[in-house]
User: Fold this.
Amino acid sequence: TRDGPEALDQAGFADGLSGFVAEACARAVWLRRAITERRFRMAFQPIVGLADRMPHHWEALLRPEPDAAAPVSGVQEFITFAETAGLSEELDWAVLAAVCAAARTARGSRIAANLSGLTLQSPDFREKLLALLDAEPLLSHRLLVEITETAEIENEAEAVRTVEALRERGLPLCIDDFGAGAAAFRYLRAFRVDYVKIDGLYVTAAGRSAQDRGIVAGMVELARTVGARVVAERIETEAEARLMQELGVDYGQGWLFGRPGPLPGSG
Ligand code: C2E
Ligand code: MG
Ligand code: MG
Ligand code: MG
Assistant:
């Protein structure tokens, strides 16, 4: 029999737990449908040369279809919950398919796809991706892969195999959100990196303090040491663009140059 405060606590805890589990399940079901039914589109944002201000390549950003009943809000939550629900590989494959479709029509410039760290470690995903690239070699000249530095990469050996296989096919890698996580140095050692994308937090901070400018300069030097080119993200003002260029950054991305939107020439 249930009586006394202790039993009540247990009942309350069980109710809370089952409510939490039910919510997570409902979210996973919704996410799976959103992914398999492709209820999203991609928005494209230019990465421009800081010297010539011309688009160098584009980053594809996920834009879930608006849905009043969505149990997630915003892109970041969509991705985080997909990861916790074990759906990140499916999501990344669906995103990649959409990016490839855009890449086939994009004239000349590469399109960057964001991949989850979990995906990068999956031998299954690697096989599928390499089969796709081998069947359609043009894609190796049209794609670029961004891996966020905040990704948890446990099986580094598998991730390295994927990165090396991609590079063998001429597909460049960018370490995204550089400086925002704790793995920056490890990734520079583990992967052969083509681009280092300095996290927007440093771009904003550099306008305000000499110490932060020093940190950006140091990141640029570090990137040079491993032969990588440097991108600065979240550039919103002309002053930030000039400062980044003075500090040796090659490319910029941000609202100053263009918001995420349709790919030009794609209708
Ligand atoms: P990220 O890869 O670092 O993408 C840059 C984010 O900064 C984007 O947010 C973009 O809209 C935003 N942004 C661009 N310019 C500016 C600016 O000048 N000012 C400000 N304040 N923000 C700017 P978004 O689209 O919300 O994406 C957030 C994060 O979600 C991305 O960060 C990326 O880590 C992840 N993500 C987005 N799309 C995908 C995807 O298709 N697959 C995966 N796995 N992750 C994705
Ligand atoms: Mg990115
Ligand atoms: Mg970024
Ligand atoms: Mg970022």
